[in-house]
Write a structure and sequence with these properties.
214 residues; alpha+beta; three-stranded antiparallel β-sheet; two-stranded antiparallel sheet; 7 helices; globular
Length: 214
């Protein structure tokens, strides 16, 4: 399976690099809506999910650190990395704005939860693709270091049922980007909710760049 980084349609190249790679005059809100509208719409599967089907916190890049350690290192606001651990680290939870210096108090959240991914098309994937999704450090929007409380509150819910306390526009755009990256579907209610959120967002916003394809 190829993980997509760009969408070409109607003669327009829509790079899913809504941050620094987007031209200053571009309307990133409209880009997000176009990408959302490119996603297949289908009813969720609703059965067969097992978390163990998605092997996670592996070391797929072979750097000696597991995925959790990689995300904590990448998202640190302060500190240095030594032997996969952040020394003197500080982290800010994107979902609720809380700060910690104790990495163990933060969870690593899958932007698109594993069950949501399964119900949206991952049930068709082989074991290797599911593992790659569960450990996707190739796109910084896929895995987010957040407080345990906000992660538990979100659980497996999509934006129809749950939104963070802050940065809702960022959240909606990043959700769409991850679904696009992995060719996952949206259901009709989910699409309506995302459309409503995005239409209420400012024209220019920033989300992490999607870099490369596999």
């Amino acid at each position: 399976m190829r993980i997509r980084g760009q969408l070409v349609g109607g003669g327009l190249l829509l790079a899913l690099a809504w941050g620094v790679s987007t031209p200053a005059h571009a309307d990133s809100r409209e880009q997000a809506l176009r990408v959302l509208n490119s996603l297949p719409v289908s009813q969720e599967r609703g059965d067969g999910y097992d978390r163990d089907l998605f092997r996670h916190w592996s070391d797929l890049d072979g750097n000696g650190c597991d995925t959790r350690e990689d995300v904590l290192a990448t998202e640190r606001a302060a500190g240095v990395v030594r032997d996969c651990r952040v020394v003197g680290g500080t982290w800010i939870s994107r979902y609720d704005g809380r700060t910690t210096t104790e990495a163990r108090t933060f969870d690593i959240d899958h932007m698109v939860p594993l069950k949501e991914a399964w119900d949206s098309g991952a049930w068709r994937w082989d074991a290797r693709t599911r593992e790659t999704f569960a450990n996707d450090v190739g796109y910084s929007g896929s895995l987010i270091a957040v407080t345990a409380g906000s992660n538990r509150s979100k659980s497996d819910r999509d934006p129809t049922e749950w939104l963070p306390d802050r940065d809702v526009c960022w959240y909606a755009k990043t959700w769409v980007a991850v679904k696009y990256r992995w060719r996952l579907a949206v259901d009709s209610t989910e699409k309506s909710a995302l459309t409503r959120i995005l239409r209420g967002c400012p024209p220019l916003m920033t989300v992490p760049d999607i870099v490369g394809t596999r």
